[in-house]
Amino acid sequence: MIFAVIGDIKSNFSGLQALLDNLRERGIQRVLQTGNVCGGVENSRECLALLRERSVVCVQGREDRALVSSRRKPRQNTARQNDDEIKSELGSSNVEYLHNLPRKRMFVEEGLRIVLCHGAINSAQHMLTRDTPMPRFRREREIASADIIVCGGAPDPFVYHVDQSMFVCPGAMGDEAGLVRYSLVDTEVTPWSALSISIDHVRDVKQDQEAAQ
What we know:
With 213 residues, the chain is an alpha/beta fold.
């Protein structure tokens, strides 16, 4: 089984489109996304529409939940106003979609048990990062006895093999070099692998524009 994982998108529509087009060209049909889709007023609606159009399997990120939750904690006026602007731009259908997304999904594909979550398995408030001590990963594995645990919210990608499980985090979709990235998980090799792949979406968009002229 081969599938891709995308991390925090933060409303980067051009990057998301280039990334999904790249996956389609490579014949990667199964794509997971670990939450935090929206990052501003512009392009949030377009990002959600594209994810839904391409049948990407998503979970709710901590920032997504803060945006749409009716029970959110009071925030400063500027932050609350920004949230209201994003929700207005998204429209009721997309707000409902974000609100109904689970923070964690558990499913079986090709005989493998997979957990997809934002943050730690039972907490969106606690992130698993590449610096998390190994005993913590072992405790997480005890919580959910899965073959592959895909977690999001951390800024940097990592992959750890813990006993008989593999933890995969794609990191944020946009990296510090201005590229966009995803993790490509391959269970057809031994041991299983999760390779972080970056693409220059700005260059790709420029080339597409030049070709269209």
